[in-house]
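Anyone opening a protein record will find just a pair of labelled lines. The record below illustrates this layout.
***
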Amino acid sequence: MTNNRLKIVFIGRYTEGQTGIVRSIYMGLLENGYDVHEINISSRPNIVANPYQKYGGHGPVFIDWRFIKEEVETFKPDIILFCAGGLTFSKEVMEEVKKKCTVIGFTLSDPDVFSTVSRYAHLFDYHTTNSTKSYKLYKEQGHRNIHYLPFGVDSRFFQARVVDPKYSSDVSIIGHYRPTRLDIAKALLDEKFHVKIFGRDWPIRSEGPVHDDEWFKAMYSTKIIVNFPKTGAGYTNVKVGVFEAAATGRLIMTEYFDEMEDFFEYDKEIVGYRDKEDLIKKIYYFLENPAKARIIAQAGRRRCLQEHTWKKRLNSFLTSIEIKESRF
């Protein structure tokens, strides 16, 4: 089978809108030329059963096969892909559907959701994790179907946009509130440079969340993006926001940690900081030296374009696994 002729049923929820990671993966599938049938559970809540009241990427959250059986059988997919959200079939349905096509689960919130997802990840033909830490834990538990799939971006993020005065800033934080972020955010607001904070639930001055075209306006209208690598559960992780910011050519400032060096080179493609004092010092330096800031930001953008797109990630993953011939 020619890889780019794959027929894929894509099941996901666009919690963060058209610029969210789930939508970005969907776009990456299309960019590879796959024939994709989309099942958007955001607009079809009747097909979802959540008996254990799991949220935030935890599972299991079940898709009711009865409601999608006819359209899936008509489409005759090679792959059914559950994209995040703890989504899966019941064990009985999973075993039946796996006789007819390859079933894959993507988890995008590890390590935070490992405790629940690891209980049923083995039921998929293949299951991916975004976390090297979780990948090792899955393997230690005896899972043999696990693949490490880092985050990426789709081509929309590289499309240049003009600065919008409404969103213009020297420094931006684009991310929802977490207590571990508050100290730095408050310190930035006290400085002389112009700061904007975008996201939900911030207890300090913020612009609120941005999605879709507003997200792009906010990102393309700032000079420097401050990234926080800690997850909601406190793990340090390479998160999707680094790739999104790099693709737009913004100067990224994030904490120093070893895993980041697998993707970007500090001081050449991104800028590292050790604490809030170090961060503030470097922000002033690069605002006063915009040419140096541009060189690093553009190097990060090139690296992202060359290596960190969903098109490349998905093609590499799907060509590395054995895909059954559809029996629908």
